[in-house]
Amino acid sequence: MARRDWRSLDESDVRVRPGRGSRPRSKRRPAHADARPAMVVGVDRGRWTCALDSDPERLVVAMRARELGRTPVVVGDVVGLVGDVSGQPDTLARIVRVEDRSSVLRRTADDTDPFERVAVANAEQLLIVTALADPPPRTGFVDRCLVACYTGGLEPVLCLTKADLASPDELLAQYADLDVPWVVTRYDQDSPELAERLRGRVSALVGHSGVGKSTLVNRLVPDAGLRTAEVSAVGKGRHTSVSAVALPLPGGGWVVDTPGIRSFGLAHVTPDDIVAAFPEFAAPAEECPPGCGHLGPPEDPDCVLDDVVAAGQARPSRLESLRRLLASRAGVDAETGDPT
Ligand SMILES: Nc1nc2c(ncn2[C@@H]2O[C@H](COP(=O)(O)OP(=O)(O)OP(=O)(O)O)[C@@H](O)[C@H]2O)c(=O)[nH]1
Ligand SMILES: [Zn+2]
Q: Which residues bind GTP (predicted)?
């Protein structure tokens, strides 16, 4: 990446002209110092739709510059653009740099692509959309989302829909020990609380089919369908599965819808990555035998985390929650034993 090259310059790259003042001049200037910052809001077959200065009204279509090499560029990425950034029809800018990411969500490997790839970059929070009924909540799915958040650097938020059909109390009780923020919604009412939580931030949304995610997005983003068509293949009559699309919120901020993403890739996540999200267990876990999965007996009979609870240094329910997440990483629903 151009920016890395520039950062890695050392004294030998700087030439001081003798007798001409003391201003050092670098032999190589940072490539494309004039590149304009933009956020990627949609990706479709070798074309990236970007919002110049993160302004949803200034969309620019870009291709990747050859110098980027294989650096992946995904929705949410902050990129540097050069060339024609007018956004006029049939113009094409070039992406010359991708800024470091503050968070990542990986999609699971599937039949068409055996690798877990980053699907969304730089989202601050993940809205885990789950219906309270019809379809019934799947805690295995929620748990996998939580693990993806803890290891990808996002704040999780439980978004419980269809509150007109069932009470959230039972589900919330299961997550009380994890201190996950939550909002409850229903399609016949606005949720000022949710709007407030999303305002000015980049939030990814994930949920199974039928939980009411489209209903939610349509309520939050005026012209959501039109916007989606604009930045994806949908409007061109192609039937490609859209990986992710960033939609602007009227009050500022973005929601990143993730159609086609059913779950997140956790194959790269280790048990210790998950334990790190539990401060009271993270340090003691270092005393566990090498390779301990921290599940406790019978899988991990010498795991010390049980001792932490026995010594009164952590609540038993916290260890239960931690172990439920550890089990979800393995792709097995802790409740039903079914694959998630
Ligand atoms: N009772 C009730 N039904 C709802 C609510 N929100 C959505 N629904 C209904 O649930 C069904 C699914 O809603 P969608 O918004 O299409 O769900 P989705 O998650 O986007 O599902 P896909 O489009 O399949 O991805 C529709 O029939 C909605 O009318 C709600 O708050 N209460
Ligand atoms: Zn252990």
A: 161-164, 207-215
The answer to whether 295 and 302 are in contact (CB under 8 A) is no
What percent of the chain has pLDDT above 90? 64
Ligand (nearest to CA of 185): 1
Q: Taking CB atoms and a 6 Å cutoff, what residues make up the pocket around ligand 1?
A: 161-162, 164-165, 186-187, 207, 209-215
Same domain (yes/no): 63, 135: no
Q: How far is the CA of 284 from the centre of ligand 2 (A)?
A: 8
**pLDDT confidence tier of residue 164, bands split at 50, 70 and 90:** very high
Token pair belonging to 4: 């890395």
134 and 212 share one domain: yes
The number of angstroms, rounded, from the C-alpha of 218 to the middle of its chain's C-alpha atoms is: 21
Kindly state the DSSP code that residue 144 receives in the 8-state scheme. Answer: H
How many angstroms is it from 340 CA to the middle of ligand 1?
Answer: 21
Annotated binding site for GTP: 161-164, 207-215
> Do 89 and 114 lie in a common domain?
no
Task: Give the CATH number of the domain where residue 90 resides.
Answer: 2.40.50.140
Ligand 1, atom 3: nearest CA belongs to which residue?
A: 162
- pLDDT, tens digit, 9 for 90 and up, residues 173-220: 999 988 899 999 999 999 999 999 999 999 999 998 899 999 999 999
In sequence order, what DSSP letters do the residues of 124-135 get, joined into one string?
A: SEEEEEEESSSS
Residue 39 burial (CB count, 10 A) = 23
The answer to whether residue 221 is domain-embedded is: yes
- Per the structure, the complete domain to which residue 119 belongs is given by 104-257
240 and 145 in a common domain: yes
Please state the pTM of the whole predicted model.
Answer: 0.85
Q: Give the pLDDT confidence of 32-90 residue by residue, as tens digits.
A: 889 999 999 999 888 999 999 999 999 999 999 998 988 899 999 999 999 999 999 99
- Ligand 1 pocket test: pick from 165, 206, 215 the residue with the most ligand atoms within 8 Å of its Cβ: 215
Which amino acid would we find at residue 281? F
Same domain, 94 and 124: no
